[in-house]
Amino acid sequence: MLLLLPPSEGKTPAPDGAAPLDLAALAHPELTARRRQVLTELAQVSARPGATAALGVSDGLAEEVARNTALHEAPAAPAAQVYTGVLYAAAGLAGLPDAAARRAQESVLTFSGLWGVVAPGDRIPAYRLGMGVGLPDAGRLATFWKPALTEVLDARAAGDVVVDCRSATYVAAWKPRTAPGPGGEPPAEWVEVRVLRETNGKRTVVSHNAKHTRGVLAGHLLRRESEARTSEDVLKAAQELVGSVVLTEIGSGKDQTLIEANLLDGKARGPRTLELVLA
Description:
32% helix; alpha/beta; nine-stranded mixed sheet; globular; two-stranded antiparallel sheet
């Protein structure tokens, strides 16, 4: 199984005094040269007037953008602790038991405009950079990362099932190959995760709670006894959650229960869709 996650928008800085970034120690060292280029460009852009606008964030995040100027020296922590958004909290990546943590290190990749991809145990500093940003020399980051990620991840995903919890911005950086490779490499089974809500018999796509629900699924896939190796295995894992309360809405206090999980076929060379229905 290969489990693809987006980064959280906010990041939790490592404690003061923690060791700094070691680029060569990150997963997939083939990406080191590109990571170094983006680090350098990001530091330059972040030091200029109008840096927040250039990076597509509000002026209220100026302090976070300023941190981008010294990421080489900044304290670093495992990515599972730095990424602390809704999806990561629901998955519980930072507190997995030993066996699940080993599975996560082998199978989870977080996509990033700065690093390309990182594994949960990769030590990184907190930063602010989205995949949709364009830098002066690298250009649009999804386009910049695509050839390198294709070379690295096509081989990793061949013959495996890819569970995709990313948003469209990050999907643009790499799409699993669902046809045999030029050398006869087996295709990947690509499964995207979509969350729906059923109200009065009508189903609509969920946006607000989708990240949380994907996080619950991700955590379950990592903790269950047997690893998912096919799309049908992923469906079975999702169906194990049917009947459980996935989340309780803040404010209303209303429970959202997973009532159904379905696996739908997609277009040729596209992903199959795992639909998770809440009510």
